[in-house]
Amino acid sequence: MTTKEEPGDFDAVWDLGDVDLDLLDQVFFDFANGRRAQKERFGGELLPNVVESASGLVFAEFFQGERDTGRKGIVVIDPRRRRQ
C-alpha cells in the first residue's frame, strides 16, 4: 500500500495454484520491455508469485519491502471468497 494520492502504477502478484495456465491471456507471461504490454493494458504489473531473482524472495514478500520504512502492507484479494 502507498500513501500517494495518485500512484503511477501498481504491482500485483497472483498465485499459480489451481490456475489453468493454458487459459490465461499471454500478456501475463510477456515480460518484454519491462512488462510494457501489461502496463499498457492494466496500468500496472501482474506477476506470478515466483522467486524474484535479485532478492531470492517470492514476489509477495519482495513487494512488502519499503526503502524508507522497512515494510509495507499488501492487499490480498481472493476471488473465491467474494460476497454474493
Explain this structure:
This protein has 84 residues and is an alpha+beta fold. It has a domain at 30-75. It is 18% helix and 14% strand. The protein has two helices and four strands, in the order βαβαββ. It has helices at residues 32-42, 59-62, and strands at residues 11-14, 45-48, 65-66, 70-71. The longest helix is centred in the middle third of the chain and has 11 residues, at 32-42. The chain starts with 10 loop residues before the first strand and ends in a 13-residue tail after the last strand.
Regions with little confidence, pLDDT below 50 for 5+ residues? none
Mean pLDDT: 85
The rounded Rg comes to: 14 Å
Q: What's the helical proportion of residues?
A: 10-25%
Cα separation of the termini: 26 Å
Q: What general outline do the C-alpha atoms trace?
A: globular
Question: What is the fold's blueprint, element by element?
Answer:
Blueprint: E1 11-14, H1 32-42, E2 45-48, H2 59-62, E3 65-66, E4 70-71
